[in-house]
Specification:
With 144 residues, this protein is α+β, with helices and mostly antiparallel strands. It contains 3 helices and 6 strands. The protein has one domain: Thiol Ester Dehydrase, Chain A (Roll). The protein has a 6-stranded antiparallel beta sheet with strand order 1-2-4-5-6-3.
């Protein structure tokens, strides 16, 4: 019986993630080119294939693209941590460590603290070689 319940919950969670990603496709998420890799209640991984329009005049990925990638990944975790509620970004700290100009970028975000009204998360962006490019933190507020 427990196995069936676990399978059912897993299928429900997968269907919810697929629906969430489909709903995000026509928004800035899709415009930027974000793709869901994996997600759970307190962690998510998204990816972005670098395209020419992601670069700045110096030929490296624009800082705004990287900040948006962090915000999207952390926002996804906030949405999953507070099902049925609206959450908004109230603070975003971004530390640019290394530049990148091509390849697949992967952003992992994790919930690190939760209070009654706010969530605090951290995120990391790595390149396809596993080099840490960006580290950031964010706060999100529940605005149900």
């Amino acid at each position: 019986m427990e196995g069936e319940q676990d399978r059912s919950r897993s299928q429900e969670a997968k269907a919810r993630l697929e629906a969430l990603e489909a709903a995000a496709r026509p928004t800035f998420w899709g415009y930027l080119g974000c793709e869901l890799v994996s997600a759970g209640e307190d962690r998510a991984v998204i990816a972005l294939q670098v395209r020419p329009e992601h670069l700045n005049l110096a030929g490296i990925v624009h800082g705004g693209v990287l900040a948006s990638l962090l915000d999207n990944a952390m926002g996804l975790v906030a949405i999953l941590a507070c099902p049925g509620e609206r959450t908004v970004t109230t603070g975003l700290n971004v530390h640019y460590l290394l530049p990148s100009s091509e390849g697949l970028l992967t952003c992992e975000a994790a919930l690190i603290f939760r209070s009654r009204r706010t969530l605090t998360l951290e995120g990391r962006i790595a390149d396809n070689k596993g080099e840490l490019l960006v580290w950031g933190s964010g706060t999100f507020r529940r605005v149900t």
